[in-house]
Amino acid sequence: MVKITKEAALEYHFKDRPGKIEVKPTKPYRTQTDLSLAYSPGVAFPCLEIQNNPDDVYKYTDKGNLVAVISNGTAVLGLGDIGAMSGKPVMEGKGLLFKIYGGVDVFDIEVNEKDPVKFCEAVEKIAPTFGGINLEDIKAPECFYIENRLKQTLDIPVMHDDQHGTAIISAAGLLNALEVAGKKIREAKIVVNGAGAAAISCTKLYCSLGAKHENIVMLDSRGVIYKGRENVNEQKAEFATSRTDIHTLEEAVKGADVFVGLSKGNVLSQDMVRSMADHPIVFALANPVPEISYEDAMAARPDVLMSTGRSDYPNQINNVIGFPYIFRGALDVHARAINEEMKLAAVKAIAQLAKMPIPEIVNEVYHVSDLQFGPKYFIPKPVDPRLITEVSAAVAKAAIESGVARTPITDWEAYKERLRQMLGQETKFTRTLHATAAMHPQRVVFAEGGHPTMMKAAVKALQEGICSPILLGNPDRLTRLANRLKLDLSGVEIIDMRADKEQGRRATYAKHLSEKRARQGYTFEEAYDKMYERNYFGMSMVEQGDADAFITGLYTKYSNTIKVAKEVVGINPAYNTFATMHILNTKKGIYYIADTLINRHPNDSVLYDVARLAAHSVSFFNDEPVMAMISYSNFGTDEVGSPVTVHQAVERLQKDYPDMAVDGEMQVSFALNKELRDDKYPFTRLKGKDVNTLVFPNMSSANSCYMLLKGLDPDVEVIGPIQMGLNKPIHFTDFEASVQDVVNITAVAAIDAYVEKLKNNKGE
Ligand SMILES: NC(=O)C1=CN([C@@H]2O[C@H](COP(=O)(O)OP(=O)(O)OC[C@H]3O[C@@H](n4cnc5c(N)ncnc54)[C@H](OP(=O)(O)O)[C@@H]3O)[C@@H](O)[C@H]2O)C=CC1
Ligand SMILES: CC(=O)C(=O)O
Ligand SMILES: [Mg+2]
What we know:
Elements: H1 6-14, H2 32-38, H3 44-52, H4 57-60, E1 66-71, H5 88-102, E2 105-110, H6 116-126, E3 132-135, H7 142-153, E4 158-160, H8 161-181, E5 190-193, H9 197-208, E6 216-220, E7 223-224, H10 234-237, H11 249-253, E8 258-261, H12 270-274, E9 281-284, H13 294-300, E10 305-308, H14 323-332, H15 340-353, H16 360-366, H17 386-401, H18 412-422, H19 428-439, E11 442-446, H20 452-463, E12 467-472, H21 475-485, E13 493-495, H22 503-516, H23 524-530, H24 534-543, E14 549-552, H25 558-568, E15 579-586, E16 589-594, H26 604-620, E17 627-630, H27 642-656, E18 662-666, H28 668-672, H29 674-680, E19 693-695, H30 699-712, E20 717-724, E21 730-732, H31 739-762
Parallel strand pairs: 1-2, 1-3, 3-4, 5-6, 5-8, 8-9, 9-10, 11-12, 11-14, 12-13, 14-21, 16-19, 17-18, 17-19
Antiparallel strand pairs: 6-7, 15-16, 15-20
Helix pairs in contact: 5-14, 6-7, 8-9, 8-15, 14-17, 15-17, 17-18, 19-31, 20-31, 22-23, 24-25, 26-27
The structure holds NADPH dihydro-nicotinamide-adenine-dinucleotide phosphate (NDP), pyruvic acid (PYR) and magnesium ion (MG).
EC number: 1.1.1.40
InterPro entries: Aminoacid_DH-like_N_sf (IPR046346), Malate_Decarboxylase (IPR051674), Malic_enzyme_CS (IPR015884), Malic_N_dom (IPR012301), Malic_N_dom_sf (IPR037062), Malic_NAD-bd (IPR012302), Malic_NAD-bd_bact_type (IPR045213), ME_PTA (IPR012188)
GO molecular function: malate dehydrogenase (decarboxylating) (NADP+) activity
């Protein structure tokens, strides 16, 4: 686990530019017209619309996506009353989390006011700006008055996160931890250390989920809160115990099933944990220093079910698992409030999610492969991409059903898709790709069945209905790997191409290959030998119709795979070469780049074929190809070297395909800017058209181009390589491909195979 040092934390905050957030325009602003629309005079029109119909503020401004994180700095984490301005890094941090996890914009607002009435007045005055108010790090008991009053006076969701965010997450964690421990909430003996904002609200929620008042002991800085104790406010009094035999934490935790700490660091000792019941549940949630460290608790009791509020230990219970999604759901229905129904819906959704199989991204982030519901994992990780769809949708639904939504949602699938797209988890492009493949799932052979990425991708593709996977490899080895990765291989076929029982199949494939390549010196014996090799065997399966498509490349070099592909399935007779294309899904749109991997130094004939293949493949993806043949010169400005080769290819293409939208040679800047191109070169065949396909003059420029874009902008989604021009759906991945990359290529391969079948049925 990475230890966080003071130096690293300070550097993180001051490096590059101070702080963690910025404000960014969302509309064009480059021209005078843009500015006149954004500001005076254009801006007056939406102002007047809002004056006429106040709900239009959601239509014309960011109000519906803007939350104020407001604090007076009186209970900043567990640091106490450090003042409004000192709490600003925490509030900015919340802004960052709101944005990355929920897509919610935040203004952090630090109000220098401890008087609850004056504080409320300040918030009420600025409330029109916001779609929601997240109160943060305001101490008890003032926080109770403040939240209650603002809920009454404001018609937007108001939530004190330390109270309810914490309550929701810890309640979900508690329900699951009790399940792991085999205990029931109504029988659980619960000690709550702390009696402030978070503690009171958490305990109330545990009670509404079944915990019994008589089983609860609460402590504040002065010890156990018992009936009749002096100086106990009304919130604490609700949980005062009738027991008279206990006064200290040490006495209270003896035999307890659950300890929930929302107080101060280092107040729970190892001996106290040792004195608890079997499988004790310890939620040491004080930040940044928990009531007991993870290491100390584990050392004291190996059977402990342990949580802290920190991200660097297992089972983080932190309100970050809730607030981005609770507000997301509330904002999306323009809710008037966040009510009990919405909170309970969030508890259920979070608890449920921890019991579902873990998405690959979570394993990747935490460098683990074996997370599953149990002592080390009973609460979803904050990076779990399903939180946004599951929790936000549950909250929005509860808002509608409980009557606080202004704008209902009816199409829940479309809503979830929008959320996924908003966070860039899934683009429309890949979603369409997967959905198209899932309409006609094909049999796909995965050559490197023993590679963890390949195996995970095969299982994921099966789960998404994209294909029936066939893994090549030794069944015992693959089963051991699957067990280690906690993958369920039911529905996945395993073929051991080296096993005795595959002798017949090896012979059939070898006979076919040796006959096909007889004139290239192939003998049956040599071909038979090759069939022990996964690429020969797998491609032969496709060639012979025993499978529909083939994926390889995680272990094998392209040059080798290409050689085998040419021998076994051959090049489509309509072309003299084959090539690959990468698809770049960028903020500006989808771009297709060719040839990224196969032809190192193409002459004009090869470029001619690459362009034809690209045109065909772009149509395959349902896009109309508009192709720029790229070079460093424009339309003959350079008369030697590669521009001439490109020029010649363009001439042939334009002659042979009078309707093809192709032109060049041209520089990338003219390809991507039609105004510039049309202005300077009005004669081009691409006049008025947006280029979506770039055919590069050689492999190094195409390859560097897609890698450069991918490297510079992590938001650019890259799909590929897409193989073009082989006789059969044989597809390759990169060495460094992720599970998602392989699943994307599998979808392409499956669609490719289906299209091929349709063509064959039509006799084309
Ligand atoms: N993991 C998470 O998601 C979250 C964690 N927290 C953490 O919970 C803690 C409390 O936050 P919050 O409720 O907002 O703050 P408050 O100031 O409202 O409450 C603090 C409470 O802790 C009590 N306390 C202080 N020292 C002790 C002690 N030695 N033994 C028992 N109780 C003690 C105080 O007692 P008294 O009433 O006598 O002053 C008070 O009741 C903080 O450490 C915070 O970081 C908070 C929210 C979310
Ligand atoms: C997590 C949080 O809100 C706190 O510790 O105050
Ligand atoms: Mg807080």
